[in-house]
Every structure is written in structure tokens, then in C-alpha cells.
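Standup notes
- DV: blocked on the single-chain target, sequence here:
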Amino acid sequence: MREKGFGVTVLQGYGKEGSREVLNITLNRKDLDVLRKILEENDSSAFITVNTTKPISGGYFTSVKKK
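- DV (later): unblocked, structure below
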């Protein structure tokens, strides 16, 4: 994800089927379709949720450049 220009925070999670990585990716709404395509290509069974974010301080937040 980082190679594609997304800022990613990785957390360890544990669910019904064992250990999982939880990716927290903050992006501009216009980049959501790009991210969804990448996720589906790499893990078609990924569980994806979307929340509205309002950054107030720090972090990595940038637009993904289209090719």
C-alpha cells in the first residue's frame, strides 16, 4: 500500500479465525476506488469499512497520483 502512495498504520488483531493484520489507511474520498481495486486484487476476501475522518494534527495525509 505504501508503494502505491497510501499512508498505512498496521495493527495486530485477533478474530474468530485467528490473528489478522488491521490496516488503518487514511485517504481522500476521491482515492477510494483506487484503494478498493488494489485491495480486491490482493485479497478478495478483505473486510473493508469506511469512516469519515477530519484530521486535526500530524500524520501522513496525501493524494494518490493517478497514472
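- Follow-up: The mean pLDDT is 85.
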